[in-house]
Specification:
Strand content: over 45%
Strand order of the largest sheet: 5-6-7-8
Helix content: under 10%
Number of helices: 0
Distance between the termini: 25 Å
Shape: globular
Radius of gyration: 11 Å
Oligomer: single chain
Length: 63
Amino acid sequence: MATYGAGVWRHDGEKATRYPVKDGEKETTLFAVYKDNRGDLWLGTHEAGAYKFNGKAFEKWHP
């Protein structure tokens, strides 16, 4: 689940884990989320571009 200001949350059936989306030291605000056919989440932010989340880590996307 993507949130406005609180990163991405993942629930495994027992517990919820929070994954903050950071641009350097600053947490960024999410505005869009898309799940591709490989299961990766693509996250659009307000001020820091796009990120790919593979369920464990974020990778900033550079076109």
